[in-house]
Amino acid sequence: MLFISKHRTYKIVFFCLIGFAFVSCKSYYTTLTIENARPAKEDLPSEIQSLTLMNRCMSNQYENYQEDSLQLYFYRQGFQLSKIVLDSTAADTTIRALAELLFESGRYDVVVPVERNIKRDISYELLPDTLSNMEVSRICQQYSTDALMVLERFSTKVMTDFSAEKYMDPTTGVYYSYYASQDLKYNAFFRIYRPGTKNPVKEFELVDTIYWESADYTQQRLFAKLPTIKQALINAGIKIALDIDSRISPTWISEKRGYFLFDLKNDLGRQLMNENRTAEAKAFWLEKAQSTNNKTRARAEYNLALASELDGNIDQAIEWGLKSFYSHYQHQTEVYLKKLKALKESKLTK
Predict the structure, then answer these.
(1) For the segment 72-121, what is each residue's pLDDT rounded down to a tens digit?
(2) Distance between CA 38 and CA 48 in Å, rounded?
(3) Rounded CA gap, 33 and 42, in Å?
(4) Residues 47, 4, 42, 191: is their CA dihedral positive or negative?
(5) pTM for the whole thing?
């Protein structure tokens, strides 16, 4: 089976160091950029930290279509066709793409079993009954996850159109202008189950259409601009995964943060931060926070607030920020405390 573990709550992207040759307050302050998580629009309960992803949409009506033969079928119909195409690769792509997206969000641990297809005996357009709690508990226990996410229904309808117009040019003679389009309408339904609960935690239905069109003077160039039918089906699977991820995963926002240096040339804290050794940087700043010099102590406490934020502990970051504020006033501390409080409020309102 495929196992994906979650990231830390915060990511350090890159460091932008600022230094000045002259001695001033700003000389001892440097900045970095972090990616800060904003809660999802429809975040799952905090007790759900891990998910098993499975597929219950595929019946014997599904087929793993060969790309060339599927394309040829549409060409033989004059590329003027409206047809339900149930492709197993597209359906499975939804599961695999969603697993990767949920992992990258840093919010969830994800397990995608090798045997991830749950047996289905009803037609593709029907929504099956909910899984029994016994079955949900068995699966979650088997893969050691908090919840089970199931693709219950998945279908795609391909609608293609092709036309040609004849023109007469006095110099070159007869020529043609070709136009083609393909619309792909998808319908997907997900349920998220949790052991011990009677009803699903969440249900999501996604219905939308993605569209491509092209025009050219030769048919070869015309169709080269369009994805093949097989590629379009796979794109639909990816689009569904993106839609779900955007609803239940946090959003990462790039934000500037700063910290104080204690040595302009060879600051140990900066060296450790540049190497992403934040725990060691925190230990260094804890020593500095014992200083009897108010300014030195305040700067170390400010840095410890940053370290706490990077650890995902906003309350502790605010505590260190307040200590810094009262040890020695610095404008950076006042600004940072406002950011931390706003960040905490945004999390509480979700």
Answers:
(1) 999 999 999 999 999 999 999 999 999 999 999 989 999 999 999 999 99
(2) 17
(3) 27
(4) negative
(5) 0.74
